[in-house]
Protein 1
Amino acid sequence: MRSADFLVIGAGMAGASAAFALAEHGSVIVLEQEEQPGFHATGRSAALFSETYGNATVRSLSRASRPFLADPPDGFCQAPLLRPRGALFIASEGERGQLAEQAAEEPGAYAALSGAEARAMVLVLRPEASAAGLYEAGAMDIDVNALHQGFLGGLRRRSGELALEAGVEALRREGGAWVAETKSGTFAARIIVNAAGAWADRVAALAGLRPLGLQPKRRTAALIDGPEDVDFAAWPLVIDAGETFYFKPDAGQLLISPADETDTEPGDAQAEELDIAIAADRVQAATTLVVRRIAHRWAGLRTFAPDRTPVCGFDPRTEGFFWLAGQGGYGIQTAPALAQLTARLITGGAPEMIAAALSPARFHGG
């Protein structure tokens, strides 16, 4: 049996970042069920950093994460984690009210644009789809792989361990510690961090706890060729007011998505032809782009709690079981703040005001 102070289940962005933060306070072992970390949600994210995305709690976590992302610790990564991108929200004539409501939620975060100004920014927009716009200049591309590898590399430098192909098959309390049985051996720790993403409720069930109601949802994306006669590399992310599609430059092509959220079971999510077709149709209806071929397609899982707010805190129904799950579509950009909060709550630091909003106790009246 291999023992540590902290056992983290899951080596995606949530688990890697939490393990990195906890390794400053004790020994850490991360258990990952796949052959490589970040295979599911993390490795399939087209992350954009936006302080206006999500509910008020999520937005506060994003703002708290920005200093780390903008200025990571020395040696954390070799290139910037954030790169300028911008986000352009467009509305038809009948959707102007949605943009007004969006702007009112975050005063000062957007510049209001006329339709002509929006189309000058992204030349392929059709007038009927872009009667008005909002521009978020502070939205940034996140180098997801660099961030993830930075956390994992930092974990190793802090003497943390990563066990691959170590999916948890059984969990039990023994001698004041949690004992995890895996195909790669038996591991024990006083504190266990459930950062298993789409599988987090299943991990809780292994520990004898009722699930919180976390729901994995499939999100589909594809790469298409951009317009041949237009330099589109500096285009912002473009998303419609109803969030039914978006597109943005990606590695010399355009990434498109129908912004789908299809309930599914935990697993290796695959893009479905219908969702790809819907994405192509919506993008073509709003622009003069013609989708002649799909260069690449994929899908990932975004797992939401019932209130669409992440879960971060000890489960009050047992000892030493910490939840870090339900990050939905915000897990990459909130990872630094959630990791630091996780470390503070576990090591006895003063809890922050936001901790109550994230606690798993909110789901069972605790």
Protein 2
Amino acid sequence: MAIRDSLEQATSDEETATIVAVIPAFNEERFIGSVVATTLQYANRVIVVNDGSTDRTAVIAQLVGAHVVHMPGNSGYGEALQAGLQCAQALEPEAIVMLDADAQHDPAAIPALVRPILMGDADIVVGSRFLERGSDIPLWRRVGQHALTFMTNRAGGGGTTDSQSGFRAFSPGALEQLRLGSSGMAFASEMLIRSGETSLRVHEVPVVVQYRDGSKRNPLMHGIEVVDGILAVVARRRPLGFIAAPGVLAALAGLLLGLIVVHTADARHAIPVGTAVLSSLLITVGILFGVTGVILNTLESFMGRLQAEIARAGREAKVRPHLEDLDN
């Protein structure tokens, strides 16, 4: 009985809750109209972030009822999303949803995404393409996505099955806690890595996607960008493990080689010059890496907060005119 009451309450909450959808878009005039129109059936407001489009994306989005935020040029997926999310937070919604502009995601899944948030069971909900077999995903995409998800999870992103999904929902409080710095496609992985460092609860729900058009980005370059972003996040957040630990291992290897040099000199009365040079190099580099890792670990917290404040100030300057429009 209690379960039935909870489900009925959740359904009621979905019907009355304030939901804002954020859609980053770059040259998506082919799909943006239908995506916005359908999304408005499940969200109270739709914010389209026009990320430097050169076609009619912005015009069409506005005509069908979206509020359009114009970025100064092509700022990148992550930067566009953060600007849109900031605008959405200003509306004080109960849930915020992000989805792609290329009709890959079905807005009809928005109620399923926001349900755990409205019921208080989750702070971030990821729409996973891999929880069920409803999506026709090309093999090369499937392999690449699993590889990137493995790396994200190993970097501290939890145990999600689809780290690169662009179909997600958030509670307003979750966005306040995340300090995100990626401007490109690594934004999705960074969000999960950051959430793993907090008390934010991440849930997944199955979604079905449709690839109606070819990828506008080179898949190889996309993958390299995400991997680079993951490594950058890990290096910044865990300098002791990413920099200092290899330094310690290098120094230990150098010391071991040094012992071999000493033993050889004592036994044969000859110094293996090559081994001695390598030993000295490993010890020197190891000490430098170790000291650097300790220093970076000390500075990371301060620099992270400073970077977040600078980024927030910059985005506020960009979106302030749009916030005034939203109030009107």
Protein 3
Amino acid sequence: MLNIVEKISEKRILVAPLNWGLGHATRCVPIINALLAAEKELIIAADGYPLQFLKKEFSTLQTIEFKGINIKYSSSNSQILAMLFQVPKIIFAIFKEHFELKKIIQKYDIQAVISDNRFGLWNKKIKTIYITHQISVKISKRFEFLNKIAYLLHCQIIKKHSQCWIPDFEDENNLSGDLSHKYPLPKNAVFIGVLSRFFTNFAYKKNNEINYKNVAIISGVEPHRTILQEKLLKLFLNENEKSLIIEGKPAQKINIQNFNDVTIVSHLEDEELAQTLKNAEKIYCRSGYSTLMDLYALGIKSAILVSTPGQTEQEYLTEHFLKKGFKVLSQKDI
């Protein structure tokens, strides 16, 4: 990944992740670190928890609140109708962020943009780099015949950018499976290897103070983020085992709540989170791709994956990682 970053000649760069959970922001950490090592001038553009997270990680960098697509999920197990009703809003948001980017480029003298899954952040006048692990967008199994059409539409978006970076391996040991290996890649797409903030020389060690039977990482969009947290809290309380729930809500002040043997913490710093996960007996987490890359980086080869109901990409990844030895638990069965 560092090699491809070194090929960027532009000096002043905007980094803009999508705000659907923290994953798109966390996987930008190694890219930002590589750009800083190459002495680039960086501005971070995001909103919500991703912006708060990156502010904590890179407190000296200039940041811009740059709102993206605000998707609302249904509390049901299917998101088909919820997505269909929001198509006009999504299209409008893509055009809005595209034209907003023009203003940002002019105001801050931006020479290149690196965006993570933000469809509208392309520009004909400067270099724009689009990060995605999902060249082939997964449609509900009921409408699987539309997968090829979704792939072709996504390729049209990708082609508007100078480059497309795929955070995965090109060979058979890849993590994304069909998401980036089923169909031919656009000509401007390249695999850059797995991205994770945990590819760092942390001093991992056994620490009884951060040893838990169960550790749950709660992430993703509402209302299912809160639904999963409430279900796992009930499960852990019934099991009477020392458990930790990490809410994925970065803020200046870390909030801690205790319920008998269960601790809920709003956020953990990277090193403590890494050690907590490596020491845990059982890990519960979403099957979001960035989470799976983090587990790979930490050498964790087993976890209990709970996909967000109706989120087809996560549902596919649970099946893909089930073959790799991971366990799968349906949210409705918790």
Protein 4
Amino acid sequence: MTMNTYDVITIGSGAAGMIAAITAARENKKVLLLEQLPTLGAKLKATGGGRCNLSNTLKKPEFMNSFGRNGRFMTEALNLFDHQALIKFLDEIGVQTHIPDGFRIFPITHSSSTILKALEQELIKQNVQIQCSSKVESILFENDNITGVTTSDKTYSAPNVVVATGGLGYPMLGANGDGYGFASSVGHKVTQLYPAMLPLLTKQTWVASCKADTIAKAQLRIDLPKAKKLKAIGDLIFTSNGIRGPVVLDFAREITPFLDKYGEVPLLMNLVKGMNEEDIYAHLKKENTLNPHGNVVEHLSSILPSSVATQICLECDANPEFKFNKLEGVTRTKLVKTLSATPLTVTGHVGFKKAMITRGGVTLKEINPKTMQSKLIKGLYFCGEVMDLDGPCGGYNLQWSFSSGFLAGHLL
């Protein structure tokens, strides 16, 4: 084996790993970046379908609240490197950004390749040594101090190691959970891991008849006693065997732990623009007046796609060809209740192979939020998704990766 000595070794070339390496190098550190794949930033390149939603314009308190109970852990990192600092940093390395909808931040090219190329060029400019096709096998430490890492054929010496290996999602892009193993090997606790931000499978088969339709501003909630407060609003898309769309991707992070525990998770969906039973009755009455010859599906067409309205009618044993006022009273009541809270049972998901993020990770109690350094091992840092912190769609997770990586690299 050969020996190579550095000030900092960064494991992983996602957003967190690359910005940590760049920032440390700007602080005059000798930096080595190790990546197990043949090229840098494979998962970053695929982010947002390749469009690369970098961040968003939420103020820090709201941004952190979107991550749930652990969100306050990000305070120090965001104070140092928020979305405005990210925009400035990217501009410095030649990437112009814009905010086309006033909320989400993108490179003006809407191409993740633009970001990846600029980060790679900055790594080279800062004299970061890059070793691709180098899989780290173990982290070395003595007397609670980091001493380096080993790969299959080399030992690299350094007093600081940054673990920025990401989660378990999209294994074809290099995700394999190595970071969790590194953390555990030095005594860190790793919470239970669940796939998040992914499509869901359902027990009901009627969804297949609606797969061409998107429901705007659908409201989802979990129909379990311990989850009454969990809800989400956003666009929903039916598939041949379940549901997807932004609201599903966001809400999946809440559903998968319950799915693991109970085997299936009952949902209640409001697909009619948030209307309650009284609103629905009033709407149908008004539509009946305007179109007295129309059937119930036609009367619902302004608030619900006809394919979805038809399937809900069939689920309630209501003939979709009938006028609403010609249905039996008990059937009308059942239909209105079902329209306001449509039941759907989640029975599974597509697994980590299509999970954009991982819920769970290295427990935050053992990481110093002011530095991203381990509280157990001096010189060991964690950044990005490998930690027990995940957010919804909309640039949240990528901003966290940049912020945590910048903080670690800045203080190394």
